[in-house]
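Tutorial, part two.
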Amino acid sequence: MAKLSPVKCPYCGQSFQREDTDFVQLGRRYAHAECVEEVNQIHEYMKKVLGGSYSYTKIESQIKNFATKEGMTLDAIYKTLIYWYDVKKSSTDQANGGIGIVPYVYSEYLKYMKSQYQNAQINKNKNIRDFVGQTPTEIIGKATPIRKPRHIKFYELS
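Running the prediction step on this input gives:
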């Protein structure tokens, strides 16, 4: 049997042999099955988040642009969106049916994940039951004094 020519995945940009890997045919193109699953996952999430302003073609072109030109993985795009909309609880008002916020928030997402990883490493050998019921023994700071509100005088203009 003749070997088929290698094809290039439109999502990740990697070339692959159709005989060696699982693939999905998209029109006249071929993509990795994992890439198609991840892209569908992004689309489903954005449908849920954006509701009626969801634009399939806009998101599809942005995914291809971020994956090929920006060098982001599909998983990183998905997790950045989860960070922006679920963790940060950001508004979808300026989304305009797309995911254009991803390159701007990506570095913030990486810092967040790095801090989460560091916290997990610090606390991995600690048991929460050791800390339950303990009261702090040292006062860290002074309580801020409560200020009386200023009385505003309103004058009648006549």
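DSSP finds four helices and four strands in the chain. In part three we will examine how such features are distributed along the chain.
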